[in-house]
Design a protein that fits this description.
This protein is of the alpha+beta class and 425 residues long. The protein has helices at residues 8-18, 30-40, 42-64, 104-170, 176-211, 234-244, 246-266, 309-375, 381-416; strands at 26-28, 68-79, 85-100, 219-221, 272-282, 293-301. α2 (30-40) packs across α4, α3 (42-64) runs antiparallel to α4 (104-170) and α8 (309-375) packs antiparallel against α9 (381-416). The radius of gyration is 36 Å and the shape is elongated.
């Protein structure tokens, strides 16, 4: 995503909010914030380590269907009837290979391969959700910063108005009640400014937590909202999501694993066949022509009756298969709902963004008129309060619409499973 840079004034405001000079501020773009989170966030690392676990499980499954070598050596010392001690040792080397397992070993290998794919998809999905969380936190912080400016402007206007009212009261042209009401409105505006600054601090802390940076280091966000139209309708978004959501693809692989698990459980009804080769010797380090024993055998094992244990395994595996199918259907429904809601919310924010821009200009003009009428003695205190409240509301609505659009657009992209172009391997 291409983001336009903030003007210098925005950077200076961020430095002031951070309580530091501009030279010592760490400047952070949205792209860099996402990159830092994907590198440093512990949740991303934990998910990636799941890939190592999956690959290790696959190696175990492949080894179970291959050669198995065993070596043993025994040393003994015994006393005979003549009271003499006699030393002895025996050595054995054997190798075994499963020839037939009823498909259980092959199913294990295939399930392990699916497990590796699942772990990879889970990592990619974690990248997507982490990217979304960073974008939302980044825009939350920018929105709070912009609103602080609105709160501060409201405080400044009420302070200026209070000064004017006190002067008019001193001249005898305004009543004491106007002074008192102006003081109350100024106090209320100051309260909103205090809360706005706290919201900014909390949002910035959330962003720091995601990207794992030092909480004491001043941070300035160098990107700002840029309107980028979203092309495509909701049906296109849904089609793309069903084909590309990593968690849905992972659900499909998990369903295949459960199908293999049913086949593996049924394999206990079939016999198993193993090939074994062995060599043994005693009283010396290596075998020779006079002291050795070689063996070769094919063993067949068949569990004829196990009191329903195998059937119980089959029933349990079939139940797990049904759960996997239901889980896939549920997750598809959840994705469908998320895409629709975020798409609709994005379009709604887009409409608000386009309509509130004009409302701000109208509210500014209305406030100016109310202020001048009051100074001329033609207006009342309530006109000033109503006009200031309308102006503040219009400005907040305009700011919220911008960042709501940006956040919902990012959420929709995440819902659709748009890949994060980031290589950690």
């Amino acid at each position: 995503m291409k983001i336009k840079s903030l003007v210098l004034g925005g950077v200076l405001t961020g430095c002031l909010l951070a309580g530091s000079s501009m030279g010592s501020c760490m400047e952070l773009s949205l792209e860099n914030a996402v990159e830092l989170a994907l590198k440093n966030n512990p949740d991303v690392l934990i998910t990636q380590l799941g890939e190592e676990t999956a690959r290790a499980s696959l190696r175990q499954a492949r080894g179970k269907n291959s050669f198995s070598w065993k070596a043993s050596s025994t040393f003994s010392r015994s006393e005979s009837d003549s009271k003499d001690w006699e030393n002895g040792n025996s050595n054995k080397l054997s190798v075994s290979l499963p020839l037939y397992s009823g498909g259980a070993n092959q199913n294990g290998i295939r399930s392990g391969e699916l497990g590796v794919d699942i772990a990879r998809l889970e990592t990619e999905r974690k990248w997507e959700t982490t990217r979304l969380a960073v974008i939302q936190a980044y825009y939350d912080t920018l929105e709070a910063q912009k609103k602080i400016a609105v709160y501060q402007d409201t405080v400044d206007k009420y302070q200026q108005h209070l000064t004017n009212v006190e002067q008019l009261y001193g001249a005898g042209s305004k009543a004491k009640i106007d002074v008192l009401r102006s003081q109350v409105e100024l106090s209320n505006a100051q309260q909103e400014l205090i809360k706005g600054k706290n919201t900014y601090d909390n949002n910035l802390s959330t962003l720091r937590n995601l990207i794992c940076t030092d909480s004491g280091e001043p941070l300035v966000l160098t990107d700002d909202f840029a309107y980028l139209p979203f092309e495509g309708g909701v049906d296109e978004c849904l089609t793309y999501a069903m084909e590309n959501r990593k968690d849905l693809l992972a659900d499909g692989y998990k369903l295949q694993q459960k199908e293999l698990a049913v086949s593996t459980a049924r394999a206990d009804y079939a016999p198993t066949v193993d090939l074994s080769l062995g060599a043994g010797w005693s009283k010396q380090v290596l075998p020779d022509g006079d002291n050795h024993e070689y063996s070769a055998s094919i063993g067949v094992s068949w569990n004829i009756f196990d009191s329903g244990i195998t059937q119980g395994k089959v029933d349990a595996a079939q139940a797990e298969l049904k759960i996997a199918r239901a889980t896939l259907a549920r997750d598809k429904n959840d994705v469908d709902l998320a895409v629709r809601k975020d798409y609709n919310s994005m379009r709604e924010a887009e409409e608000r963004f386009n309509s509130t821009q004009a409302a701000v200009k109208q509210a500014e003009e209305d406030f100016f008129i109310a202020q001048e009428k009051y100074k001329a003695g033609e207006g009342i205190m309530l006109d000033i309060i109503d006009a200031q409240e309308a102006l503040s509301t219009a400005r907040h609505n305009y700011i919220s619409a911008q960042y709501d659009y940006a956040r919902y657009k990012a959420a929709l992209e995440s819902d659709m499973g748009m890949a994060v172009e980031y290589a950690l391997r």
